[in-house]
Amino acid sequence: MTRLLLAVGLTLAVASSAAAQDGPAGALQGSFLASTEGDFGGALGADLWYPIDVFRIGGFFAVGAVPTGEDARNRVFMPVGASLGLELLGEVVGVSLRARGGLWGGATQDEKLTAGGFVGGGAWFLYHLGAGVTLSVGLEVWGLFGAGETALFAPGAGLTWNPAFEAE
After folding, report:
1. 27-30 long-range CB contacts below 8 Å, 24 or more apart?
2. How far is 82 from 65, CA to CA, in rounded Å?
3. Mean pLDDT for the chain?
4. Mean per-residue pLDDT for 38-67?
5. Pairing with 32, which of 41, 44, 55, 138 sits 20 to 30 Å away (CA)?
6. What is the mean pLDDT of residues 68-76?
């Protein structure tokens, strides 16, 4: 096991020195939430990535609320977990594909304090604003597991920053 960890660490060090970019990359987004049961809410989220060429690896954190009259689905939640991304950037426009997984903690009216699993992913259209910053508009689908399981559609908008885009 030690040899495997050493090999993985050495591989990442060699790859990162060859293709790593100066500084972290990330995204901030606000999303409208719509559940399959017809409930609506909103969320604010952030990704912080270590960029390796077009790939992004890092973490995700968000806060959201989906109010509804049904106690089992009325919730506030905070997902946190791993975030993977693929960003293909041209001179003016680009595309970002993101996948996330982890846990959420929060409360439903029915269960009070609770937690569960979180998965999500989606695609974002990027428009270059300058200085390594892009405007992002996209759609994600989130799954919350545990108390009051639900699927959420999350169209949103935000900003991304990317040190490699600034250097080009």
Report:
1. 27/96, 27/98, 27/124, 27/136, 27/158, 27/159, 27/160, 27/161, 28/158, 28/159, 28/160, 29/136, 29/138, 29/156, 29/157, 29/158, 29/159, 30/156, 30/157, 30/158
2. 21
3. 86
4. 95
5. 55
6. 84
